[in-house]
Fold these 2 entries.
Entry 1:
Amino acid sequence: MPFTQQLEKVRLQEGFIAALDQSGGSTPKALKLYGIAESEYSGDEAMYTKVHEMRTRIITDPAFNGDRILGAILFENTMDRQIRGMGSAQFLWNEKRVVPFLKVDKGLADDANGAQVMKPIGNLADLLARAKKAGVFGTKMRSVIKDKNGAGVKAVVDQQFEVGQQINKAGLIPIIEPEVDIHAPDKKGAEQQLRDGIMNHLDRLPKGQHVMLKLTLPEVDDFYKPCIDHPAVLRVVALSGGYSREDANARLARNHGMIASFSRALSEGLSAKQSDADFHGMLDKAIQSIFLASRT
């Protein structure tokens, strides 16, 4: 069964997770970085077509495969589209041996107590059922912690694990992502509160239930080792959070057992205007650098 094979790959294999899940609000910026100006498309449908072309170029490149990449996180619009005549999630697994994940959150609520919880996820059960049918293995959902504030951190962690339970019950593995803003005034203090909250929830999970964690690279090296070692945690992955690829890789390499789940740091330097050879060379170099940083 693919799920069992995918579970073992995610749990045991060296590599990292590619985050290809920019959504409505972040798509114009992602396209601009890729060398496509807003004047080159008009309307959401044209925008999503352009970004799907970008993701398709990345995913179909020979450098992008399951030897170094464990999984890829997709946006819902990408899951609903095809790559070379095959559903995107199916293509990832069948052709590349890359485990497909789906971003399920609908963005962030307004700031409260130094944090932003997720907006309500309407029709989550239907989305999870569609994802399962499409061949998706797991999900990802993002909240943001902006400062050391016990009430804000608790609200984020409680919500993440509550929704995570629904995802588990649908037969998918949730990636829980309570991001700590890299510009938080007391990032170290916020991370301490976050780790305490996560461990509290992990200890209360039903036996045999698994989650993954996606966390900001911490101020203290190996800070999340207790999470990495917890039997309920399949993998702890790191978000680049605005750090450059070079800085993110250096920080990641100092955090043993943590692997990358980079978005902007993966696509940094790629351009729609590059020849296929130049594009491949740049992507291969990026993948190798992130892979090596994830091996420590």
Entry 2:
Amino acid sequence: MGNLIHWVFAVTGVIFIAELVVGRHRGIYSRNDWFVNTICILFGLLLRPLSAAAIATVLAALLPQWKGALAGAPFLPSLIAIVLLGEFANYWVHRLSHQFKGARHMDWLWRMHRTHHTGKYVNVLLNFRTSLFWTLVGGLSWVLALSLYLGLALPAGFAVTLFMLWGIITHADFRWDDAIRAHPRVGPAFRAMEHVLISPGVHHSHHGYGRDGGNFRNYGIMLAIYDWMFGTLYIPKGRPFRYGIPGESPHWADDAFAPLKPVEWTRGLRNGSCSHMQAEGAIDRHD
């Protein structure tokens, strides 16, 4: 599994360097972006293994008798099952995170996922821009952890690699699929394929708004079948009018550490202290 992950980082590095060379990263990052991206990438590498350990602990407590239960299962059916279940779990958690935006008791789920959408660009770095705590609730994380717990280490490793590589391809700034989709002969077949597999165009649409954008659809990572099945698939004609989400971006600390609100808490403490001091001053003046 370690060798497979090395391939993922190698492909990421090659595409990142290519994006740099052709200027796709020039002048697109705000101060907020630098802080959020740095925290998510560097601290994410440390915290994701801890999240995996936490999920494994929960599974061991809930299903102690299932440990290694499927260790002898054949590779290909296991891989297919993990991919299908992982996509299904991801689809619904991902979809609900968007639909719970502004909900009274569930807005925290959107704020956890919002970090991945506040970047006003799409490139390979955005693939790693997620809240430090998103792994704890992501449906794919739980399916992959369960697969490992059941003894399916090899197919789970291949599934992780497939999902990561596909995420890199669909987040890359290079949009080779636009020309294919617009081709008079190949285009119809390619658009038909997009009902099954997520293309860069389909995922870029999810990160955009305005023409050919809309983060309320296209929730799949690698497979488009659940979007197609549940009516949220949209195949665009080109790039979205804008990337990101409309309005002012949250503070970098609230963004990177969502659903925690360190900035709001700090402001609340300061305001509380000021109110307390003002009240004491009023008492002193009254005396």
